[in-house]
TrEMBL record:
Origin superkingdom: Bacteria
UniProt name for this protein: Transcriptional regulator of acetoin/glycerol metabolism
Residue ranges annotated for the Sigma-54 factor interaction domain, each copy included: 344-570
Keywords, sorted A to Z: ATP-binding, DNA-binding, Nucleotide-binding, Transcription, Transcription regulation
Disordered: annotated span: 1-20
Stored Pfam families: AAA_lid_14, GAF, HTH_8, Sigma54_activat
Amino acid sequence: MTGDKTVHAGSGGRYLPQTDGMVPAISSSTMLDESHRRCVSYGLSETARPDFSPIGRSDISLLVEQNRVLHTHALPVMETLYEQIVNTHNMVVLTDANGMIVDALGDDDFLEKANRVALQPGVNWSEEGKGTNAIGTAIVEKKPTLVHASQHYLVSNHFLTCSAAPIFSHQGKLIGVLDVTGDQRSFHQHTMALVRMSAQMIENQLFSAAFDDGITLHFHSRPEFIGTLMEGIASFTPSGRFLSANRIGLVQLGLPLPALQAHTFSSLFGMPVSALFDHYRTASPSLLTMCLHNGVRVHARAELRRSSMVFQNVSHAQPEAAQARPPEQPRNAAARRLSSLHYLNTGDTQMQRLIDKVGKVLGRDISILITGETGTGKDLLAQAIHNDSPRAGGPFVAVNCASIPETLIESELFGYEDGAFTGARKKGSVGKILQANGGTLFLDEIGDMPVSLQARLLRVLQERVVLPLGSSKSIPVNVAVICATNRNLRDMIARSAFREDLYYRLNGLVVKLPPLRERTDLEIVVNRLLLAESEGQPHKVSAEVMRMFKQHNWPGNFRQLSNLLRTAVVMLGEGEAEIGIEHLPDDFLEDLNAVAHQETAENIERVVNRASTLEDVEATVISRSLKAHGGNVSATARALGVSRNTIYRKMPQSPV
Ligand SMILES: Nc1ncnc2c1ncn2[C@@H]1O[C@H](COP(=O)(O)OP(=O)(O)OP(=O)(O)O)[C@@H](O)[C@H]1O
């Protein structure tokens, strides 16, 4: 390498160092021109030898303490970055927002040279003190900056090449700079890219740490970029209020942070936050495809942190209390209180009995088996039991045995040692059972647990030890177990599809959640679900719709009802607050009609058999059909295939 031949200020085309044809992708000359002008205005002389002495030891400790969060998250990234450039006469430097070096890692031989210009903790590299340099100039410009050799303002820094990238907090505030500085002869054009990626990595780590609760969405227009540094990350409260996004997220969302703060999950991604929860509750979590507010299609993966799951569970059950909660209250505690047995008790007698029974075994070493049709709230009940138990401070780990492929369920549950099988992660994995240690393990769809694993699970429950795959060492574990199924386990035992011994170990207390059609608290439930759906203005259903709801048999139970209400709310016009039949989805009305048709046919047969007059037959049929349709004349007319006028003419005085 020949060294640089930089032309100094005042001559055109300057700042382009010629390093054996390897011209670095340097910062624009305008940017560097401006920086040099600033140096002149600071009163700096190019040949000056500035003060390189670091601040005292105790001040350095204070500096590290003041930047503890940044330093903690940056250090592992700095170490990885250093591994990439080791033995290249370079060093990795982290500074605070003022350019004060907080930490530095470097090759010994270069450190000696670097010490000449004091690239060491406690020395300030702001532009005012050290002239144009990547750290100081990146702070002023708030942009990744490369300053090579004689692009440095001070002659004493001409032997350096520096690549720096600013690090921003989730509030968009510059909080530090990551820099790689080395001997200018060791310049490598990939260094800047490495530094930028590393700074992004630090920002993402800081972002995850700041938003370790609620909902975090990882998104990108290309699915293969999810999980990479290119992904956008956005965070929301459990109720869907936008909190923040990383820099790439902001670019993808196309709005500045203050504008985004007025948004919600649904206004940005066109999907209610409850649908997100349902996706993760019901589907094996595949990537979501959503449409951004600006029409761009994105793929996304969400992380629903503990309190948001709890919040979602109860946002249906007790939204008014959730909304009344002042924001400064600890969310976990409040959410836990909301997802409790007390709040699931909405006035139905079967539920009341069930909750009484469950309350008696809380905190005892008694396994609970929850049965019930799909969507009756087995998952929600399991969470409430945990939250009301003395284990509430411990983890609640849910495993859906039906959604994990049979080949993976063993490693998911029991974990595995390093290299236990082909494809196993290095360093092994802690299984779900151990993750639940000290808390509750919820085995949903236990009827889908492969028979081969049932014996291993029984051993865990009886001996309270887990043996990870590939390990010879059992690990003690202390978990409460709640299971749920909508299968008939006794039938399965008879078919040898479920082990009898495991069944008796699991069924300490068996409770059956009533289907929605049998519940006497439907009105309360509907109103609570609607409250959860409404943003500000509370919605209600018309008396006619409520009558139809009471007659429907709700095969999908709560899940069906809440989806239906969510759709109906969207159908409401501007300023409308009451859900009428016209707001209900067609398939629901068709189901209702199909049932009514069948009932009408049966009624006709019965009435005709009683040998009444034709008028009697008509009146009885109309009256019963009206009843079946909740008094709705249009629906009755449709079901009977006559006009509404015919119904009005022939209907008895008091139809329902
Ligand atoms: N009591 C309730 N009040 C309001 N919403 C409820 C209630 N119970 C359940 N839900 C809602 O209904 C949906 C289904 O509930 P959950 O997943 O607990 O049912 P499940 O019985 O476990 O269903 P599956 O057997 O299909 O897994 C969820 O969105 C849940 O929040």
